[in-house]
Design goal:
It is a single chain. 7% of the residues lie in helices and 37% in strands. The protein has 437 residues and is mainly beta. Strand 8 and strand 9 form a beta hairpin. The termini are far apart. Bound molecules: copper (II) ion. Copper (II) ion binds next to loops.
């Protein structure tokens, strides 16, 4: 890392050095890294592709002959590394007769095949893929009235193959193997000691930036953790509210999109009003190499992320997480609270419950003021909200982003309410098909 960028250094410490050679030269490049994270080098014009290397693997060497003059790009093909700086130039000069000797036609053919790669077939589905969907009922209990104290948390960052959709898998990057990561709950005035451990099996560096933290880039500045290592930060929860946390390691949008986000609730001293049920839901946008519904193992697509054109949207990490895998349930007459956040990385949510009104909304996660009787509330990427409502009538209530094209891309959650139907609240009069309760 140099000035916040990830780079190649030569023996003199030159950043992304220009490599120089003459046509006909054979080049031997030896690459090494002191980091746990893996890197590689590719030079597509000469079909060069090194093995991944890291501190654990030791150095790797590539050898190739340069057959044409020109300026050629080398870069690291590990996702995100080129975007944050691992890229340089190989300059090849040649005697005029050498380039003249090369038949023009064959030259063009070589360049053409490098510049226009065929559409990649999708990789086979990962047979070891596990569910990464976070249980929406995994909400820590209210803390009650207590004095500020020291709270210790340990979180592990884990990269793993996860189920994205029926017959489709994806390489998720996670906090504690779930998307979103664990919900944290502390009291205003508490001091939190947070240890972030990056699993030995990781290929990337990871970190945590909590929006509830003052200073140190929210913790992101001092928690850049290489595979197999741990780092600890201590901070004071100075402001009550519901806050997003996320990985802050470049390429940050990739780390967030791949699942590295969660919520931390900082309760005010008096706590929040008591409710019967609390749920934890987060929205994310995903960018994959192939369209939604393609069977196989989807790769992350940096270009689609850059263009902000998601192929999937999810609540709690995967398609169907909150419609099939987990059930959110309540009984008529109960009060329900949803801690809702948008990990993103890019898309806002028009959060809405079909057939319900949010009795109270703590807009933007701020507990200091409440809005009443809200139909749809906007939640920014890296933002959160708390919604409270009483369920007065049985049925299946869909929680959605009211940008409704996103439902077909995976974005829906279902709250099942059981109990007596009060005809004063709602009544179908034309005798058609009844609701399925
Ligand atoms: Cu990360």
């Amino acid at each position: 890392m140099a000035d916040g960028k990830m780079v190649y250094l030569d023996a003199k410490g030159q950043v992304n050095p220009v490599l120089r050679a003459k046509v006909g030269d054979t080049i031997e490049l030896t690459l090494a890294s002191g980091e746990g994270a893996e890197h590689d080098i590719v030079i597509p014009d000469f079909k060069v592709q090194s093995k991944p290397f890291s501190a654990a693997s030791g150095p790797t060497t590539v050898r190739f002959t340069v057959t044409q003059s020109g300026s050629f790009t080398y870069y690291c093909s590990i996702p995100g590394h080129r975007q944050i700086g691992m890229e340089g130039v190989l300059e090849v000069t040649g005697p005029a007769d050498a380039s003249a000797a090369a038949p023009k036609g064959s030259n063009t053919a070589v360049l053409g095949s490098a510049a226009a790669p065929a559409v990649k077939p999708i990789a086979a589905v990962a047979t070891d893929a596990v569910s990464i969907a976070m249980d929406p009922t995994a909400v820590p209990k209210p803390l009650g009235q207590r004095a500020p104290q020291l709270v210790k948390y340990s979180i592990e960052t884990v990269e793993l193959a996860g189920k994205l959709d029926d017959g489709t898998t994806f390489t998720y990057w996670t906090f504690d193997k779930k998307v979103p990561g664990p919900m944290l709950r502390v009291k205003k005035g508490d001091t939190i000691e947070l240890t972030l451990t990056n699993a030995r099996s990781s290929k990337m560096i990871h970190s945590i930036d909590l929006h509830a933290v003052t200073g140190g880039h929210g913790g992101g500045e001092h928690t850049q953790v290489a595979p197999g290592e741990s780092k600890t930060v201590r901070f004071k929860a100075m402001n009550a509210g519901l806050y997003v946390y996320h990985c802050a390691t470049p390429d940050v949008p990739h780390h967030i999109s791949a699942g590295m986000y969660g919520l931390i609730l900082v309760e005010p001293p008096e706590g929040l009003p008591k409710v019967d049920r609390e749920f934890y839901v987060m929205q994310g946008d995903l960018y994959t190499s192939h369209k939604k519904g393609t069977k196989g193992h989807q790769a992350y697509d940096t270009d689609k992320a850059s263009d902000e054109l998601p192929t999937y949207y999810t609540f709690n990490g995967s398609v169907g997480a909150l419609t099939k895998e987990f059930r959110m349930q309540a009984k008529v007459g109960e009060t329900v609270r949803v801690y809702f956040g948008v990990g993103g990385p890019n898309k806002s949510s028009a959060f809405h419950a079909i057939g319900e009104i949010f009795g109270k909304v703590y807009s933007e996660g701020s507990i200091s003021s409440v809005r009443r009787d809200v139909q749809t509330t906007t939640v920014a990427p890296g933002g959160a909200t708390i919604v409270d409502f009483k369920v007065d009538y049985p049925g299946k209530y869909l929680l959605v982003d009211h940008a409704l094209s996103r439902v077909a891309k995976g974005l829906a959650a279902s709250l099942e309410v059981t109990g007596p139907a009060d005809s004063a609240v709602y009544q179908p009069l034309s005798g058609g098909a009844h609701a399925d309760h």
